[in-house]
Amino acid sequence: MEYSELGKTLTKQEIALTFSNGEFEKTVEYIADETVWEVVEENTFVGKDAITENCNQVAAYFKSVTTDFKTLNIIAQDHKVVINGTAEFSRNGQRVSFVSACDLYEFNENGQIQRITSYCIQAPQA
Each residue of 82-119: b (16+ CB within 10 Å) or e? Predict the structure, then answer.
């Protein structure tokens, strides 16, 4: 099933991939008001406003570095999508950080994200 926003059509897989790749502004309309985003062992954001505020902070960081996202796997079944991959962040040609991540998205019947569970493992600095 596909869902449309401003004339564009995004599948649940595309919504999840877009969010995982840090293109948050393209996914805001697909986040339900009561959504919970748990970044395991780090933080939990409850509600669309809290999630959007965190996304704005993360997006500001992304603008301060060069980002290289690599998607390794996308698994989708019914109302769930799992994305795993890596993200490398660098500034002035030097690696700032490297993260291996897995995001589990759960969608409601309206095609909106209702829960995100993120597992992020940051590589130690050299």
Answer: bbbbebbbeeeeeeeebeebbbbbbbeeebbbbbbbbe
- Confidence at residue 8, expressed as pLDDT on a 0 to 100 scale: 66
The angle at the Cα of 100, spanning 97 to 105, to the nearest 5 degrees, equals: 125
Q: Are 87 and 67 in contact (CB under 8 A)?
A: yes
Phi, psi angle pair for 50, to nearest 5°: -65, -40
**Which residues of the chain, if any, have pLDDT below 70?**
1-8, 125-126
Cα 71 to Cα 86: distance, rounded to the nearest angstrom: 7
Q: Note the pLDDT of residue 9.
A: 72
